[in-house]
Design a protein that fits this description.
binds nicotinamide-adenine-dinucleotide, 325 residues, 8-stranded mixed sheet, N-(1-d-carboxylethyl)-l-norvaline Dehydrogenase, domain 2, Rossmann fold
């Protein structure tokens, strides 16, 4: 199997939607030779927009940008034929993923590593039926992929023992923070957390307690700022005062069994609820195009990441490291 550590690699990106385009941009700006394939004839302008966003963001972070840019392949075969790493970013449907893997195995070198962007399928599930399941891992990124450092790495039952170690090094080399998921579970770490918040938010809208904007305000004016730099546990440790985490749990642990949350129950996504959410979201943000929102988001993220860099705190560590690289 290809050893991912070392110099620039040939990277094939299969599926160039939101995530695939972000991967293609990050890998090319970091100096890898990138090809991409997507059966959608209109995929090119979207990918080009993402690459431009990425260039702007990397400039804002004071990161050096390689000169190569992703090139389109006319077929999956042409895309993967000499690839060292194949990044799968097709829609989140098991049958589409498995059909794509079968094609990759038919056309790529048996040495090529395959990394799936799946948000939830376990690698062992994805690798069923593969001739070389040892070369498959999950490398789960976050949107915008060219800017957010986190990538969750997950091995399946058949993944080669040294592949995660190599992948860690490889993804750190493209200015990412690889987080190895210690046990294979559905939806990994970050999406499990996000699902819990998302479910609760849907209930709050469903029950008429808050609008989409109220919920976003509750996050961005408050705990969202804390989360960006310290996460959850470090934040709660401070919330416990000098008694730290133990005192925090003593004080608030009991509240977990109070009826504050609906957690595992999911509100039925009725036409009415979907309409309410979509209308509120239009009222909140409809005066911006998606491209304008992307630009605002990226500028804000760059500013936050730059602010964290001098102390190398949280994501600032990745920013400072990549400046030195
Ligand atoms: N959107 C997110 O925030 C996010 C975050 C992390 C991971 N993911 C995961 O990334 C993957 C892609 O998600 P996305 O949001 O980019 O979806 P998307 O719908 O934006 O893009 C999917 C792309 O795949 C293309 N495609 C469809 N069938 C194909 C095939 N057979 N071969 C090649 N390309 C094909 C489509 O034309 C489309 O451009 C999913 O597994 C998703 O769970 C998404």
């Amino acid at each position: 199997m290809t050893n991912l550590s070392g110099g620039p690699r040939v990277v094939a990106v299969i599926g160039a939607g939101v995530i695939g385009s972000g991967w293609a941009a990050r890998m090319a700006l970091a100096g890898h030779e990138v090809r991409w394939f997507d059966p959608n004839p209109n995929a090119e302008p979207f990918l080009q927009r993402i690459v431009s966003n990425a260039e702007e963001a990397w400039k804002g972070l004071d990161w050096s940008v390689a000169t190569g840019r992703p090139t389109r392949s006319d077929s999956l075969e042409a895309c993967v034929v000499d690839a060292d790493l194949v990044i799968e970013s097709v829609p989140e449907r098991l049958e589409i993923k498995r059909a794509t893997f079968a094609q990759i195995e038919a056309d790529a070198s048996p040495e090529a590593v395959i990394a799936s962007s799946t948000s939830g399928f376990r690698p062992t599930q994805l690798a069923e039926g593969l001739e070389h399941p040892e070369r498959l891992i999950v490398a789960h990124p976050f949107n915008p992929v060219y800017l957010l450092p986190l990538v969750e790495l997950v091995a399946g039952e058949s993944t080669a023992p040294d592949l995660i170690g190599q992948a860690k090094e490889f993804y750190a080399g493209v200015a990412m923070k690889p987080l190895v998921v210690r046990k294979e579970i559905d939806a990994f770490i970050a999406d499990r957390l996000l699902e819990a918040v998302w479910r609760e938010a849907l209930w709050l809208v469903n029950d008429g307690i808050a609008t989409t904007e109220d919920i976003d305000d509750a996050i961005r004016y408050g705990f969202g700022l804390r989360w960006a730099q310290m996460g959850l546990f470090e934040t709660y440790r401070i919330a416990g005062g000098d008694g730290g985490m133990r005192h925090f749990i003593e004080q608030f642990g009991e509240a977990l069994s109070w009826p504050w949350t609906k957690l595992m129950d999911v509100p039925e996504l009725t036409d009415e609820l979907i309409e309410a959410i979509a209308t509120q979201s239009d009222d909140q943000s409809g005066h911006f195009t998606i491209a304008e929102l992307e630009a605002h988001r990226d500028e804000n993220l760059v500013a936050i990441m730059n602010a964290l860099a001098p102390k190398r705190w949280g994501a600032g560590d990745t920013v400072a490291e990549n400046r030195q690289r």
